[in-house]
Design brief:
With 231 residues, this protein is α/β, with parallel strands linked by helices. The chain has helices at residues 20-30, 40-50, 56-71, 76-90, 96-107, 120-128, 155-158, 161-171, 189-192, 205-214; strands at residues 4-9, 111-119, 134-142, 148-153, 174-183, 197-201, 217-222, 225-229.
Length: 231
Amino acid sequence: MAKQKVAIFDVDGTLFRSSFLIELVEALIAEGIFPKQSRVIYEREYRAWVNREGSYEDYIEAVIASFMKYLRGVSFGDFERIGLKVVERNQDRTYRYTRDLAKKLKRRGYFLLAVSQSPKGVLDTFCKRLGFNKVYGRFYELGASDKFTGEVVDLHLIANKANIVRRAVEKENLTLKGSYGIGDTEGDISMLELVDHPICFNPNAKLYRYAKLNGWKIVVERKDVVYDIDS
């Protein structure tokens, strides 16, 4: 059977105009599932990023720390319910360029693969409506009474996107010939190095420098304008 071409998308900051983990943590706090002091862990980094005195990477790492600290003991039912609310509120909050690229490649017969560090349950609902065939995200361990233990399942696998891509290519009978990869941070480099057409979309500084060195396509979407940066 002929192998299908694949297009691999990061989600947060690439398809979705925010981070699902940030939106989820804020929703868990608003619903009273996480305590209000959860914000203390990341509010300083948030202010520094908003004021352009700190990095987005420091901010998101602090959000992750807060999420992992307070996830333990949360019931799967509450987590799933709030996750669905987050997706419903944000389903249309996408970037035009990547949304339209996904649609175009889907029409051309590509297998759409999403690889993200956000919770898989949230990603599944969001990406399915955009036509994705397969989604890889983080799974969290469940203990007694279907409550989270605070541990990530198979972190060694999901942390490296190249590992995920190789696994999906073999499992789904895909080919990397003619493949596309779209990402926005240095965490996407291992995935972008595997594809024939790497696209760095609204890249952070580390990915931007790497893309310039390697001659990769750089695309920026600002307000209602999309433009390429010559590499």
